[in-house]
Amino acid sequence: MNILPKFQLLATSLILLLLTSCSDEEYFEGESDPYVEYRIAVVDEKGNNLVDPANPNNILDRSVSVVYHGEEYPLESFENEIQIKNPYARTYLTTFYGIFNVTKPQHATSGPYLYVGEFDDVRDVDEFTIKWGDGMPDDVIKFKTDTKGSTKDTFKFNVTTWVNGKKHKNVTDLTIVKK
Fold first, then answer.
1. What secondary structure does DSSP assign to 97-155, as a single string?
2. Which of 27, 39, 46, 137 has its CA 20 to 30 A from that of 9?
3. Minimal CA–CA distance to 83: which of 101, 116, 106, 112?
4. Residue 110 in contact with residue 49, Cβ under 8 Å?
5. Quick check: 38 and 117 in contact, CB under 8 A?
6. pLDDT in tens, 60-105
7. CA distances from 139 to 99, 103, 178 (A)
């Protein structure tokens, strides 16, 4: 029994598979869907950061939570910038993690903030509600995405956000002023 033809067929098939599976266009199309995540600064009327543990008037000891698709997620603290994306993964699955207070952001220009996400590529309007747990009115954040183009060079990802009914175009870094 001669196994050489079978081996040659297998080797040829593997080489063809490797040569045809590595183009940038194929990597881009459909392997990693866009997602939305929000970074929310919460300040008082004087601009004091209300999610900074160093601020004696912070809101971190209150029952802050986010409600998404009928499920409530309590505020959790996360000291460092959230690094949940694997830069080496060819496929990335969006996961909703809830709401986090990021106390030591990577970027020196920003102070502590709330992180809410991740949300799938949302074609219809979706929403989440931040409950402040202290008698302050809840904040309702609605959002919708729009994509155009199908290649790396032509692809555009737009996010429209409404905070308590006020529209913001392509903004996922928000500031909420609490009285």
1. -EEEEEEE-SSTT---EEEEEEEE--SS-EEEEEE-SSSSPPEEEEEEEEEE-SSTTT-
2. 27
3. 106
4. no
5. yes
6. 989 999 999 999 999 988 765 554 444 455 556 677 888 888 887 7
7. 14, 21, 10
Question: Tens of pLDDT along 22-57?
Answer: 444 443 444 456 778 898 999 999 999 999 999 999
State the amino acid at position 15 in one-letter form: I
> 51 is written with which tokens?
């999610």
* C-alpha–C-alpha distance, residues 96 and 75, integer Å: 13
CA distance 136 to 25: 48
How many CA atoms, within 13 angstroms, populate the side-chain half-sphere of residue 145? 16
Residue labelled with tokens 């309007």? 125
Sequence-ordered list of residues with C-beta below 8 angstroms from that of 134, at least 6 positions apart, any chain:
59, 62, 63
Amino acid code (one letter) for 14: L
Rounded to whole angstroms, what are the CA distances from 44 to 40, 57, 67? 13, 9, 23
Closest CA to 121 of 103, 100, 143: 143
